[in-house]
Amino acid sequence: MYHFISGYTALVAGTEDGIKEPQATFSACFGAAFIMLHPTKYAAMLAEKMQTYGATGWLVNTGWSGGRYGVGKRIKLPYTRKIIDAIHSGELLTANYQKTEVFGLEIPTAIEGVPSEILDPINTWTDKAAYKETLLKLAGLFGKNFEVFASYKIGEDSTLTEEILAAGPKV
């Protein structure tokens, strides 16, 4: 729900006027311009539906890896397709996972047809210090973006609010 509310994406050259290189941006629920209710209300509805129907949610990096713009490159589409295939087949439900630093995301250690080194972004960056700097900068952007949602209480006892906030980056 934290990442759904955050709606992290990038403005990319060719799709946005005046953009020459990708810029991080946030759009609550990945559609802020089109939502009528507070984003946390949509997050609560999504959480309820996922719990009711036993649905799973996945974050898939289809963007940049291996370094900042001009150094790294987009993840290859065939790898993205293999990751989506693994989600659809249920393969990832039984995979082994490791937790990333700062964001605490659980990432699979192996997916058939995908080089395991690209699954953990740090492995694709030759400049590990630049990776760490970028990671902390991104965590800061998430934290700043989420400040407007942090005080909004969801539910009678606000436990969902606490769960959502706990899923944010730890800097």
Explain this structure.
With 171 residues, this protein is of the alpha+beta class. It is 37% helix and 11% strand. The strands form 3 sheets. It has a two-stranded antiparallel ribbon. It has a two-stranded antiparallel sheet with strand order 3-4. The mean pLDDT is 90.
Task: Provide a quick synopsis of the model.
With 171 residues, the chain is an alpha+beta fold. The chain is 37% helix and 11% strand. The two termini are 19 Å apart.
Number of helices: 5
Oligomer: single chain
The helix content, as a percent range, equals 25-40%
Order of helices and strands: HEEHEEHEEHH
- Write down how many β-strands occur, each being a DSSP E stretch of 2 or more residues: 6
Kindly report how far apart the N and C termini lie: 19 Å
- Strand order, largest beta sheet: 1-2
> Which structural class best describes the helix and strand composition?
alpha+beta
Strand content: 5-15%
Cα radius of gyration in angstroms: 17 Å
* Overall geometric form: globular
Q: What is the typical, i.e. mean, pLDDT?
A: 90
Please specify the SSE layout and strand pairing.
Blueprint lengths: L1 H5 L1 E4 L11 E4 L12 H15 L10 E2 L7 E2 L2 H13 L7 E3 L6 E3 L19 H23 L8 H8 L5
Antiparallel strand pairs: 1-2, 3-4, 5-6
Task: List key phrases describing it.
171 residues; alpha+beta; two-stranded antiparallel ribbon; 11% strand
